[in-house]
Amino acid sequence: MIFSHNATTKHKQSVGSIFDIPHKDSVGKYLRCPVFQGKPETSTISKILAKATGRMESWKANSILEARRTVLIQSNLESLPAHTI
Length: 85
Hints:
Layout: H1 9-19, E1 28-30, E2 33-35, H2 42-61, H3 66-84
Antiparallel strand pairs: 1-2
Helix pairs in contact: 2-3
């Protein structure tokens, strides 16, 4: 269970005890992407860039034709941030 930043410790404990659910500061990951509230952290954006760069390097190493690489890059660069955010 995650609470708003405005919730007091007393409220968090009382609601957590009623539902018997522990309080966490982070939800974790869903479909291998971090779940966050509010503005994403710089580390989240860095991971997205690293993943995209790694994919592009592997496609270049596999000697895929330039036209096919272009389509792969466009589709992945469009979908990767949208999937994460």
